[in-house]
Specification:
Layout lengths: L5 H21 L5 H27 L8 H25 L4 H12 L7 H9 L4 H24 L8 H8 L2 H14 L6 H11 L2 H14 L10 H24 L4 H11 L7 H7 L4 H26 L1
Helix pairs in contact: 1-10, 2-6, 2-8, 2-9, 2-10, 3-4, 3-6, 3-11, 4-6, 4-11, 5-12, 6-7, 6-8, 11-12, 11-14, 13-14
Length: 310
């Protein structure tokens, strides 16, 4: 009996859920008010609880021999992605309503939902602690700097009021609480952990339903595969893994840690990116197109990259 490898099974599953969202939209299950509700559920309920559960229950900072190096690799490599992609937005004259998206999609990957099965399949269960640390760093970047950049879709200068709004979001509150608890080895009571796990598990299926609905609403005549579209692909699948490889090598990372960091850096765009785009008034069609495209391309890129680094 043919068994589909787990990473590709995950990719196929999210595509099927997106297809279901598109089908239900055409059956008129998703009026505008319902679409807004799904978006709010993802951003204000599912994602915060997912972050809180994952970090408090899966991450143990005290179990790593060299925590400083482990955190520095994703922190420096993702930071380098932000700097490079920010420079590209000016060089390529990316539209204002796409600049924050361009940087976020170039710099942050789908490091948990796809990162777990991909790294387990390639490196085995010993890779999982490294996967979780990369996820924590990437989540911290996006829900601070990434969201601030998304908020600047109108071209106005960054103000303290905008920073305050980011710090007041449920996602940032969950992230800060989770990291603080993990640092002091605190765990949620069993019943609260179950609540967080159950609500957090809604994040990916709801995001994919939302993407399916959004794909059905795409204004294809307005889409142009221009140079900033291909630049995001280059950043996501070429520059990002090369940056992770270079920094991990310079810091003397062991082969397993190096391989995990490179593979995490080369995964597709986060599935929640279109929801954040819609929330902050960015170009949602652009986000949907690149989220879908990177997911499809990763079917070929993940096996290729896995063969190179193992």
């Amino acid at each position: 009996m043919f068994v589909l490898p787990e990473p590709f099974g995950r990719l196929l599953s999210i595509m099927l859920i997106a297809a279901l969202g598109a089908f239900l939209y055409h059956r008129r299950w998703f009026p505008d008010a319902c679409i807004q509700l799904v978006s709010r559920l993802i951003l204000d309920v599912a994602l915060p609880f997912s972050i809180l559960y994952t970090i408090t229950e899966r991450v143990d900072f005290h179990s790593f021999g060299n925590l400083r190096t482990l955190i520095l690799i994703p922190a420096l490599s993702i930071g380098l992605n932000y700097v490079a992609s920010g420079g590209l937005t000016r060089l390529l004259r990316v539209r204002e309503d796409r600049r924050g998206l361009f940087v976020g999609m170039s710099s942050n990957s789908n490091s948990l939902f796809l990162g777990l099965p991909v790294n387990t399949a390639v490196f085995g269960p010993d890779s999982l602690p490294f996967v979780y640390v990369y996820y924590v760093v990437s989540t911290a970047y996006f829900n601070t700097l990434g969201v601030l950049l998304l908020r600047q879709t109108d071209g106005k200068r960054l103000r303290l009021k905008q920073i305050g709004r980011v710090l007041a979001t449920p996602i940032f509150a969950a992230l800060a609480l989770a990291v603080g608890m993990a640092a002091f080895r605190l765990r949620l009571p069993g019943f609260l952990a179950d609540v967080c796990q159950t609500l957090g598990s809604l994040a990916t299926p709801l995001s994919m339903l939302y993407i399916g609905v959004s794909i059905s609403r795409l204004r294809l005549k307005n889409i142009r595969l221009n140079r900033d579209f291909f630049a995001v692909l280059g950043m996501r699948f070429l520059f990002s893994p090369l940056a992770a490889f270079g920094i991990a090598t310079l810091l003397g990372a062991a082969p397993l840690l190096l391989g995990v960091m490179v593979l995490q850096a080369a995964l597709p765009v986060m599935t929640s990116m279109p929801i954040f785009s819609q929330q902050y008034g960015a170009d949602t069609d652009y986000a949907i197109l690149l989220t879908s495209t990177t997911a499809l391309l990763s079917i070929a890129i993940i096996p290729l990259l896995s063969g190179i680094i193992t």
